[in-house]
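fyi for ur records
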Amino acid sequence: MANTIHVDVVSAEESIYSGEAEFVVLPGESGELGIYPRHTPLISRIRPGEVRIKPAGGGEEELIFVAGGILEVQPKAITVLADTAIRGHDLDEAKALEAKRQAEVAMQNRTGKLEIAAAQAELASAVAQLAAIQKLRRRH
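which gave:
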């Protein structure tokens, strides 16, 4: 398959996805990135959000939530090293809502810059996870 690119999405716990794809869309540090086969080499941090993978040969788009990490793009391969990665169908709305609530409370109760930054990161991750859940819900 000349017009595909190999994609690996891994977290510290496990390999989440490995296979050929027609294209990949993910949340780069400076905005959303769309990557096709033979893309220029690139290394970037990724923000919390969803990785959308269009599998080779058609089929339903894969959605994977990532809570940040590093992206490496080579002309024939994409590697996403995620801090946390969850398959779309494994996302839990109740847990995400609770994480959002806890992060909001933590932001109100923190005084140090590091504590506030950590709470903001947790809030951003929870909000991105809820957005991914909403997108999946609209799809089905």
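The mean pLDDT is 85. thats all i got for now
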